[in-house]
Specification:
heterodimer; A: about 350 residues; mainly alpha; MetI-like fold; 13 helices; 2 strands; B: mainly alpha
């Protein structure tokens, strides 16, 4: 910021516009920067020809903006710091045993998070199994098959799914989905697929299956919107080339589109997984909240997020609270890894333009 | 599929083509059905319980009929106001940084942290704000609830602002600099103004996203059966009340949970739809 020759009068009053600049830096450079559409070195040079007095508010503004950017960084650091600080007690006491211990016993201050980790994993994987084919189907339908006029309506409806608060999903799940599962779906599954052992035992409606289904409904918009974006990023001539070889529409989609977009789709799926792992309210309302590891999907379970939601305000004693915060820390680390991985994959396809809606 | 080639295509390939088309249509229907089901149930079950007393009264003790969620509606407004005051300026500020100053490694770092923040489960944000504010203040408060939701708004607003500012052509900035307008004026009155439609869209989407959040409020705003207009007291919120009522054993409370959800969804869908009607996303002012 130190240029020796200032063409303008440095004592010009603040806020006045300086006279037109006579010695402009080469405009060719400015032109060259235009295509990239980002602030260029040449623009900075023009700016430096301004009088020093008018640069003071510029500097103040710049620092305000930098501070708000730093605040984002600071918030994430604070989250990490608070989680580590508040879970120290439990980290020291239980070590790695915390993650495979089965007993969750606030009375004796002995904590193992295994049932919650199991519940989180199983409900999220179940959600993925249900949501992935549906999301890809919707994305294929919207980008490749549906009439132009329907397109924006369907994507709007799918986006709307993302806007429904999770507590409303939970409410709907308790009073509509769970009775439906209990009276019709679960007896049917028990009769036809009961031999697998996955569908057995008493049918409450509330349980792992209900949680998985509601999670699937909630992550479809995430996966579908990313899949749609990476599919649109596939160049049109890829499709035309495959069609020209005599492919049917499905063969064109499979070979020309899905194969090219697969890394991005995997990224979208992982992003959906990240959302499912951290989802709290709907799952808490539907999963039954019992810390058990059970093979049957009808049985109630418990997830990491729901145990925090249910017990955090009631946690008496430092060790109890610390154990709950450690679950939060584990959840944070897992979602961090999952999200970073997903973004890398999606970025490698779209060049950094795609992002999840809300 | 072009009609002229279908003659030569084998039966198996035609069947898989039809099958795939059928599956895609089925998937679209299966995704839309729950959405419609949720809305239909919300309206059918909720509309009967939305009345004057629901909108003007506070909750009655369990077992007594009647009462309403007036304090929850006001509480949600209070918390969202605090959240917007924190989240929108910080979000727009970081967005401006990312677009106008952040074409460097530090910018990439901020961009990455914004994405990390976007992926942090809401319940973890709740824990953090609980230990940062609630433990220090020694009581639950509307303010801490607002802070939690505000933090969750920042990444959405920031990325929307960045995206829109990057769409503003550089020619416009050059024109402003050529007239001798300082950078801060150029950014605020010219770039940001040109991008305003998209930035407002981003803010409304962030608002809609946090309006129904429940998990972080469980241990920040906490909920309240009575009126509260003070920022430093526990406050009721619509979403919290819906949760409490939904898992309660009382029929009357279940009805009120549906009514509360209906109000909440009208608020959120109203915000999203208003944005979609008034501003088409991605369009620049005057462009």
């Amino acid at each position: 910021m130190s240029d020796s020759v200032d063409p303008m009068n440095p004592s010009q009053p603040l806020g006045r516009l300086p006279k037109p600049v006579t010695s402009m830096p080469s405009l060719a450079k400015v032109d060259a920067g235009r295509t990239g559409n980002k602030p260029t070195a040449a623009l900075e040079k023009i700016r430096r020809t301004y009088p020093r007095s008018s640069r003071i508010p510029d500097e103040v503004f710049r620092w305000i903006i930098i501070l708000s950017a730093i605040s984002v960084f600071a918030i994430v650091l604070l989250v990490v710091w608070e989680l580590v600080d508040k879970s120290k007690l439990s980290l020291h006491q239980f070590g790695l045993h915390f993650f495979y211990g089965h007993d969750w016993d606030p009375v004796n201050d002995s904590y193992g998070a295994m049932p919650f980790i199991y519940g989180t994993l199983v409900s999220s994987l179940l959600a993925l199994v249900l949501a992935v084919p549906l999301s890809i189907g919707v994305a294929v339908f919207v980008t490749e098959m549906c009439p132009q006029r329907l397109r924006s309506y369907i994507s709007f409806l799918v986006e709307l799914l993302a806007a429904i608060p999770s507590v409303i999903y939970g409410l709907w799940g308790i009073f509509v989905l769970a009775p439906l599962l209990r009276d019709y779906v679960e007896p049917f599954l028990a009769k036809t697929l009961g031999w697998t052992g996955l569908f057995g035992g008493p049918m409450y409606g509330l349980g792992m299956l209900a949680a998985g289904i509601i999670l699937a409904i909630m992550i479809v918009p995430v996966i579908a919107s990313i899949t749609r974006e990476v599919m649109t990023a596939v160049p049109q001539n890829q499709r035309e080339a495959v069609l020209a070889l005599g492919a049917t529409r499905w063969e064109m989609i499979r070979m020309g589109v899905l194969r090219n977009a697969r890394i991005g789709i995997v990224g979208g799926v992982i992003l959906g997984l990240g959302r499912a792992l951290g989802e709290t309210m709907a799952v808490t309302m539907l999963i039954g909240n019992r810390p058990e590891v059970s093979k049957s999907l009808f049985a109630p379970g418990y997830t990491m997020a729901s145990v925090i939601a249910n017990e955090f305000t009631e946690a008496t004693g430092d060790m109890y609270l610390s154990a709950l915060v450690e679950i939060g820390l584990a959840l944070f680390i897992v979602t961090l890894i999952v999200n970073a991985l997903a973004r890398l994959l999606v970025w490698s396809i779209t060049g950094g333009t795609a992002r999840p809606s809300a | 599929m072009p009609a002229s080639t279908s003659q030569k295509v084998s039966l198996w390939r035609r069947l898989t083509d039809w099958g795939a088309t059928g599956f895609a249509v089925l998937a679209a229907i299966l995704v839309i059905v729950p959405l419609l089901a949720i809305f239909v149930y919300l309206v059918i079950k909720g509309i009967g319980s939305v009345n004057i007393s629901f909108l003007t009264q506070t909750p009655k003790p369990p077992g007594e009929l009647g009462g309403g969620m007036a304090n929850g509606i006001v509480g949600t407004g209070l918390i969202l106001a605090v959240a917007s005051v924190i989240g929108i300026p910080l979000g727009i500020g970081s967005g401006i940084y990312l677009a106008e100053y952040g074409r460097n490694r530090f910018g990439d770092l901020i961009r990455f942290t914004a994405d990390v923040l976007n992926g942090v489960p809401s319940i973890v944000v709740g824990i953090t704000v609980y230990s940062l504010i609630v433990i220090r203040q020694k009581h639950f408060s509307a303010f801490s609830g607002g802070v939690a939701l505000g933090i969750m708004m920042i990444p959405t607003v920031a990325r929307a602002t960045e995206e829109m500012l990057l769409m503003v052509p550089n020619v416009i900035r050059e024109a402003a600099y050529g007239l001798g307008i300082p950078k801060w004026r150029t950014t605020l009155s010219i770039s940001l103004r040109t991008a305003s439609a998209g930035v407002i869209t981003g803010c409304m989407l962030a608002f809609a996203r946090v309006a129904g959040e429940t998990a972080p409020l469980l241990f920040t705003a906490f909920g309240n059966q009575f009126w509260n207009l003070k920022l430093n007291q526990p406050t009721a919120a619509l979403s919290l009340q819906v949760y409490t009522y939904a898992i309660s054993p009382y029929d009357d409370w279940h009805k009120q949970a549906w009514a509360g959800s209906l109000i909440l969804i009208v608020l959120i869908v109203g915000a999203v739809a208003a944005v979609r009607i008034t501003t088409s996303r991605g369009r620049l002012k005057g462009a």
